[in-house]
Amino acid sequence: PDLDVVMFRGNVQTRLRKLDEGEADGTILAYAGLKRLGLENVVTDLMPLDTFPPAPGQGAICIESRVGDLDVERMLTAIHDVPTGQALACERAFLAALDGSCRTPIAGHATISGGTVFFAGLIISPDGRQSHEVIGEGPAQDAARIGEHAARTVRAKAGEKFFDGWV
Q1: 3-state SS string over 87-141?
Q2: What fold characterizes domain 70-163?
Q3: Average pLDDT over every residue of 55-72
Q4: Which pairs with CB-CB distance under 8 Å and at least 24 residues apart come from 64-67?
Q5: Which of 60, 66, 79, 136 has its CA 20 to 30 Å from the CA of residue 17?
Q6: Using one digit for the tens of pLDDT, what is the confidence trace for 80-115?
Q7: For residue 31, what are the β-bridge partners?
Q8: What does the pLDDT read at residue 51?
Q9: For the chain, where do the domains classified as CATH 3.30.160.40 start and end?
């Protein structure tokens, strides 16, 4: 595609205003966030998962609590979804092993089916010219290990120079 990728930061309303002011021709926003804000009308296209995978952990909800607060732990255990937790562990391990952040072009998506985790990861150079994909699978209880292994695999495939321009 003929794209000029530029840094385009701000909350949803700020980004939409910047679009209206002509600072960019388009932006990518989370559909769930737009829906929550009642802004579905601004959506022009939805990107399919197989061609545009999400950032690791995208869409997962996390609750943090005090260590040792057994009452809260019991409440959270009742609502915790184990397969989602396993998928998230895989995705977060992939991100962490690549030393990723919200500013690094890393995608990762894990699903759990029949006790098996299936993972697809992607790293993209900041200018968008190079990318490397990785897939992995294994027992769901080993989800974090599978994510870490995928990161090592894609890092070896890309070479260390690939990461030089990352923030």
Answers
A1: HHHHHHHHHHHCCCCCCCCEEEEEEEECCEEEEEEEEECCCCCCEEEEEEEEEHH
A2: Double Stranded RNA Binding Domain (3.30.160)
A3: 92
A4: none
A5: 60
A6: 999 999 999 999 999 999 999 878 899 999 999 999
A7: none
A8: 84
A9: 70-163
Is 141's pLDDT higher than 70? yes
d(CA 167, CA 147): 22
Calculate the CA 29 to chain-centre distance: 13
Decide: helix, strand or coil at residue 162.
helix
- The angle, 0 to 180 degrees and rounded to 10, between the axes of the packed helices 82-97 and 143-158 is 30
Cβ atoms of 104 and 166 closer than 8 Å: yes
In the chain, the amino acid numbered 100 is G
Which residue type is seen at 63? I
Looking at residue 52, its pLDDT comes to 85
Looking at residue 58, its amino acid is Q
Angle at 138 between CA 131 and CA 119, to 5 degrees: 30
Nearest CA-CA partner of 97 in 119, 118, 116: 119
Token pair 């200018």 in the structure block, residue: 127
* Mean pLDDT score, 114-130: 93
Q: Among all chains, which residue has been given the structure tokens 């690094």?
A: 104
